[in-house]
Write a structure and sequence with these properties.
The chain is of the alpha+beta class and about 200 residues long. The chain has eight helices and five strands, in the order H-H-H-H-H-H-H-H-E-E-E-E-E. Pfam families: HD_5.
Length: about 200
Amino acid sequence: MGDDEVALLSLAASLHDVGKVRIPDEILLKPGRLTADEYAQMKLHTVYGYEILKANSKINPRVAQVALQHHERNDGRGYPYGIRNSEMDAMSRVVAVADIFHAMSSRRPYHEPMPFYRVVSEMRNGSFGELDPHIVGVFLEQIIRHLLGRQVKLSDGRWGEVVYLDPQEDMHPLVKVGDGFIDLKRERHLNIEEIII
């Protein structure tokens, strides 16, 4: 993408959930599982977002399209219209991947954040619905590449800094903890739970 498209994608990603302003707080902030009716209402945030953004003539129509399509999936099992990959705007496919990563790795009223290593594993295995595999690959490659030099929490509760990434074993880096090093390739019982970005 060129600079103009990246700027447009950034705007679309920032506004993709704007339709949630029309969802009642008792549904949006509900700590437990939604009923079928509540879930049907929640899914309307895509249409609401499209309507809000489309009504503003100063906003590029692709931004509204992303709000509408970010829950669609390659296999047609997404919403609101069940369209397939080829019918989706490319920016919608990118935002869909980022949205799933964010949803799974963030604390929400209805769930705790999933550990980093599980989010990556499940996204690679396509566990969150059919996403564009190329976009998932590029997205995860960039996320993992940026682990180098970051503070991470290991599954045993210790914190350390990622000092080396093996391209063949990217989820099993070398981590400096205190004065020592832990090679996650050898210590397979340990994983990265959290990252300080």
